Amino acid sequence: MDAKYIALFLGGGLIAGMGPATAEKIAAKFGDGCFDVLENHPEKLAQLPRVSIKMARKICANYQTVKHLREVLLFLYQFDLGHVLADKIYRHYGDATIVVVKKNPYALTETIDGVGFLTVSGACHHPATPIRSITIGTPNWRTPPSGFGIYTHFTGLGLYQPPLILSHNSR
User: Fold this and answer.
1) Residue 40 DSSP code
2) Which is deepest, 16, 62, 65, 137, by most CB within 10 Å?
3) If one looks up domain 3-65 in CATH, what number appears?
């Protein structure tokens, strides 16, 4: 895992006592091994400048309360979604987040406010998300606030077909 994403997770405000600067030091020094350090070896954290053993134990204890979020948030951070959006997605899908995003990332456009086609399209071109699971002609129905039904589809290569207005829904 890239140290950038590890630092983003650790310094994102979830772990009390750890800010972005400390998170970057931990990610740089320990890399992928930082999670083992946080779970089992608080004394190793105290080797960092300006981190006492007392502070290291506090950080490790606080990490224990959020470690279940690690896999999902690190997965979402790969797509440059940011903390707020990643948190929204996790709150909606919970432990199924990774499965949903890998299976059909465009489902996020229907269920998460702030996620549109451009956001998802960027995620689909990332190696962690197999765009090949969306085939030519797969419909994606949306009913925007205007009340018009819109049909769009994406090809297996990620090419976007412009929306066609099919009907007006009376509300």
Assistant:
1) H
2) 62
3) 1.10.150
